[in-house]
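Figure 6 in text form: structure in, sequence out.
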């Protein structure tokens, strides 16, 4: 096993515990479990999720879809509108190898997919906006109108409605997070109801988002969950109150490279930890990661290969040059994508198979 740093470390026992919690929740609430793999980007972990009861996986890109199909995953949902000709052609090729579900949120996107799949047909899910204000039609009447349009197009099988309440990552209180979870579930269930009032059956009503999954997932009418980060957790989730540091399965191992009167310098900078403090405005995150062995320390500054930790000259900081620390990242999904492999607590090395994978 490599001992060099910076190193992406995975605690297999913690990951398995997180996975078991999700799988048990899905089973107890009769939900289809379709986890998002953009967090881990690993064939090995995706197979473990399938073994735990997942019906398939969710991806953000076709690169990720291809890696998952290569791993033998039988059903892949692409939670991103596919409209570019090159991507549609690639999607058609992938659809010959596995069951694909594609996102739609515009009539233009629907038309382009219909033209491409008029001979073969493909399952599509309509995305509704539950408050993030990114992709997605407005729930209710606008969703039903697009569903009607899609249902009349050849080549498209409208089988689901889904949303992503990413604004939950910016919640400043538990009450706000729970309100977002309610809004998330209702946006999907209400939209599906409006569609079914018009005679359009919507068998899948899917929610995602780790901060809300255990709350939105219990709403009557929700059938499908797609959490990603919950396989690992990170300091954003800790700040939101949905996890504790001991629930975080991924850390970055770093070495003290330099020590001065008022600071330590470690060999993990922005190319190992990223500069993110929460993509959706979460203010609970302090610094650039949580030093597990010394929570009193804060990583104050990152350059590309350096992390700077201020120390009190009178504190007698015990860390010396070549000592190592483990850092829980602010955002695990971004951090994982910076590494080629995991060093697993079992002694194994697992590849980050879909690293990059942005197309």
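Output sequence:
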């Amino acid at each position: 096993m490599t001992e060099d740093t910076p190193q992406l470390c995975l605690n297999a026992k913690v990951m398995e515990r997180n996975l078991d919690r999700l799988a048990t929740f899905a089973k107890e609430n009769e939900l289809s479990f379709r986890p998002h793999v953009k967090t881990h980007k690993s064939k090995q972990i995706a197979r473990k999720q399938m073994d735990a009861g997942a019906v398939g996986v969710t991806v953000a890109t076709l690169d990720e879809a291809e890696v998952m199909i290569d791993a033998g995953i039988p059903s892949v949902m692409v939670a991103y509108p596919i409209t570019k000709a090159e991507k549609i052609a690639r999607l058609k090729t992938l659809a010959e190898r596995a069951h694909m579900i594609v996102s739609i949120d515009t009539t233009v996107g629907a038309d382009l997919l219909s033209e491409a799949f008029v001979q073969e047909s493909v399952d599509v899910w309509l995305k509704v906006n539950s408050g993030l204000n990114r992709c997605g039609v407005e729930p209710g009447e606008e969703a039903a109108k697009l569903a009607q349009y899609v249902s009349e197009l050849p080549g498209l099988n409208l089988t689901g409605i889904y949303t992503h309440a990413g604004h939950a990552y910016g919640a400043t209180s538990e009450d706000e997070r729970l309100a977002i979870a309610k809004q998330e579930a209702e946006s999907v269930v209400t939209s599906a109801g409006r569609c079914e009032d018009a005679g359009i059956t919507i068998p899948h009503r899917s929610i995602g988002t780790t901060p809300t999954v255990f709350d939105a997932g219990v709403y009557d009418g929700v059938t499908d969950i797609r959490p990603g980060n919950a396989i690992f957790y990170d300091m954003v989730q800790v700040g939101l109150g949905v996890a504790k540091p001991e629930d975080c399965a991924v850390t970055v191992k770093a070495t003290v490279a330099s020590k001065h009167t008022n600071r330590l310098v470690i060999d993990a900078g922005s190319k190992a930890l990223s500069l993110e403090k929460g993509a959706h405005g979460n203010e609970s995150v302090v610094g650039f990661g949580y030093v597990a062995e010394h929570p009193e320390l804060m990583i104050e500054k990152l350059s590309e290969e350096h992390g700077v930790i201020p120390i009190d000259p009178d504190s007698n900081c015990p860390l010396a040059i070549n000592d190592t620390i483990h850092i829980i990242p602010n955002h695990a999904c971004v951090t994982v994508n910076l590494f080629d492999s995991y060093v697993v607590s079992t002694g194994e090395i697992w590849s980050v198979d879909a690293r990059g994978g942005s197309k």
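Caption detail: The longest strand covers residues 250-260.
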